[in-house]
Write a structure and sequence with these properties.
The protein is of the alpha/beta class and 194 residues long. Helix content is 36%, strand content 22%. Strands 1, 2, 3, 4, 5, 6 and 7 form a seven-stranded mixed beta sheet that branches. Strands 8-9 form a two-stranded antiparallel ribbon.
């Protein structure tokens, strides 16, 4: 049950990567196998020149191919996802996300860029043949704040939305049992009286 976390931010640390890691922690708590890909760590020249034979590019494309679930996080710049994410997605084959469940995440300075997930990123993920694109999670800068220790903190309202998104991702994408509701009861424990 491999999950690939793709960080599409050109900077580190970043709020979008903090959002991505918050999802990763929740999935790891569900015993999902987590892999990470930070696009900013790929060789810039190989990435920009579409050097498919470069070992780092080959490994990154193979990570996408082997993942069952993909979580993509990006900052929103000028109502669109990041340029480094765009360059990487352009390297992928037309059916690179075929059969995969994808959860898009984005961060931005204000709520005005919230629709970038639906109008900019979702069509590209769909064009890459994603089987199921879950409703994305968008967070503003005020929902992911920097602590005095230089770590990002996810606020409670955002944490609740992440919990819901991870629950859907785990049950629909990874086919894990739900963590809420009634505990499943084996048939051997069912008793009936008349």
């Amino acid at each position: 049950m491999s999950v690939l976390l793709i960080a599409g931010s050109p900077s580190a640390p970043s709020r979008s990567t903090a959002l991505l890691e918050a999802v990763g922690e929740r999935l790891a708590g569900r015993n999902a196998q987590i892999e990470r890909l930070a696009i900013r760590d790929l060789p810039a020249q190989a990435l920009l020149l579409a050097d498919w034979d470069h070992p780092a590019i080959e490994r990154a494309i193979a990570q996408v191919a082997h993942a069952r679930v993909v979580v993509v996080a990006t900052p929103v710049y000028k109502a669109a996802y990041s340029g480094v994410l765009k360059v990487f997605l352009d390297l992928l084959a037309q059916n690179a996300l075929k059969g995969k469940t994808v959860l898009p995440l984005a961060t931005g300075g204000s709520p005005h860029h919230m629709l970038a997930l639906d109008y900019a990123l979702r069509p590209v993920l769909h064009a890459l043949s994603a089987r199921h694109i879950l409703p994305g999670v968008y967070a503003t800068d005020s929902q992911i704040t920097l602590t005095p220790e230089n770590a990002y903190q996810v606020h409670a309202d955002l944490a609740e939305r992440l919990n819901e998104a991870v629950e859907v991702l785990a049950t629909e994408g990874l086919k894990l049992p739900a963590t809420h509701g009634f505990e499943p009861v084996p048939f051997s424990r069912v008793r009936c009286s008349v």
